[in-house]
Each structure stands twice: as C-alpha cells, then as structure tokens.
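Friendly challenge for the regulars: who can give me the structure tokens for this chain first? No prize, just bragging rights.
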Amino acid sequence: MTKNDPVDLIKKKILESKHIAITSHLRPDGDSICTSLALYFMGKILDKDVAIINKDNTPFPLNNLPHIDKIRIGQIPPYGYDIVILLECANVSRSGQNNLDNYFKINIDHHHSNDFYADIDWVYPDAAAVGCMALTLGERLGIKFTPNIANLLYCAIVSDTGSFQFSNTNAQSLKVCSQLINYGASSIQVSDILFNNNPPEKIKLLGQVLSTLHINKEGNIAILTMFKKDLNDFKIKEIDTEDIMTLARSIKDIQIVFFFKEIKKDTFRISIRSKESVNASLIAEHFGGGGHLHAAGFTVNGKYEELLVKIPETFNNLIKKSKKDKKSKIKH
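First reply, four minutes later:
Bragging rights claimed.
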C-alpha cells in the first residue's frame, strides 16, 4: 500500500467500514448514477450495508436502468453511516446534502474544479468518467466484476463521453470499456437504455426546441431554448436532451452551443457543448458552474431576451481575454 495513494486509502476505509452512504451531485447524470449503482453492488459483494441517497430525482432515460429503485431521494440523516462517498461533487453543497458535517467523507471526482474538501480526496481530471475510477477502485478491492457491475460502469462512461464523441474520450476510457465488455458489459443493452427509449412526446419536443435555433452573425454560436411551457404542453416532466444539443453541435462552423432550459420565471439552466479547442468550462465557471472542456453548464437568473445577448457576449469576451493572457505568458 502506498502511504498517500488515495485509492489505497479509500480501499482501507471501505474495508473497515460497515455502513456506507453514497451520494452524487444535484441534477445527477449518467456517470454519477451508474457509478453509484456499481459501487452499491461492489459493497454488497463485500458484505457492506450500502445506501444510495441523492437530493434530486433520477432523470430520463436513466430512470429505466435496472435496479434504479436502489436509489433513494432525500437527505442523508446526520448519523447512521461510517462513511459517505460523494461522487462528482466539487464541494459538499454541490451534493445538496445538509447533514454531512460530522461524517468521514470520501470525495471521488474527475473534474479539475474541486475544492478538495473531504477526509480523502481522489480527484483525477485525466479520467474520462468516475466510472473509470470505480473500475480501478473495484480492482484494488479485489471485486469479481459481474456483468451487472460491468454494464453499469460501461453505461457511466458511454454517457459521460457522449457516446465517445467528447474530448474526454481517450485511450484510457476505451481500454476501460474493453475491460468491461470482457467482464460481461453489453454495448447493445446500454445503447437501448440510453438512446432507444424515447417516448413520441420527446420527438415532438425535439422539433419544438429545434424551432428556437438561433445562430449568431459570425456563424460560430448556436442557441437553443426549452421553456417550461414546452414540457407542460407535451406532458413531459423530466427528459434527457443531450441528443438535441448534439444536433445543433453538428452544424458546420458551429463551435459552441448554449442550451437554455427554463427552470422557473427568469431562471435558466444553461448546458454548453463545444468543439475543437473552445473551452466550454471557461464560461460555466465564470457563472459559478463547471464541467469539462467540451461539456459544461451553469444556472443563471435574468430576463430571457437580455440573456440571449449577455451570454454570447460574455463568452466572446472571456475567449478574447484568455487568448490575450496566453500571449502575455508566452512573451514573459
């Protein structure tokens, strides 16, 4: 065991613990949800009492995953567990959990924007997904990977790499997926869950959202919008919209897509997807959000018409400043 290796430290803590809670970030995604479930079943193999407790509901289509009922929605109680594992949480507040002050916390994340707040911090930005990191942890724990666990981790990686289209698709992520298929993961089953579960209403919604497409005069920024009214009209409560952004991102010369999703009046969740060297996390972090080079997001308040102007302008200013700073560093 390496003294300061976080994986070995986490392994030791898990093995000496009996009651384990797992939680992930607000508005959980495929990586955090599937990895949570994989860790749950690993814990069961080790004869641990494991609970997954998230603040927010599981979104579509992930709510169609097998064993999704293992995830409870609500707050982790202030006592009752030996450790709490937080997945993809830059800080405790990102989890939405209010009772973690007295717990031993393990922080597992693959985003560079992390506050290193836990008793054990394992932050590895080179990992394509926490699903990749969970495979490493499972191997250290001596887990015999079942097809179920392999499927969940494969699903986590496929989801977070945008079906291997995002920049976090690297040699490591493909190698991990190869291992998981050898352990029994089914690429067909995962694809069916993630991409072939759409209700007719979603396809109608897709058409409505695409009708809002706005491209700036330079032709490099695309903006899409989904209003709450659209969801209500099609009687949809929660829906995955990644494929809508992928369509806009595929437009020739588009470098970045801003997808406005109305949460309530004058409040929007903005998802960002970019291409090439355009840094999506640059603007997300400016507005208090975060993410990866090509996939990020943040929440913003303001009048819709004003935000349509403000967000692209802010992005362009940040890009100009970033380029200026890089030139300044090169000169010095």
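Residues 200-331 form a domain with the Diaminopimelate Epimerase; Chain A, domain 1 fold (CATH 3.10.310.30). The mean pLDDT is 92. Your move, everyone else.
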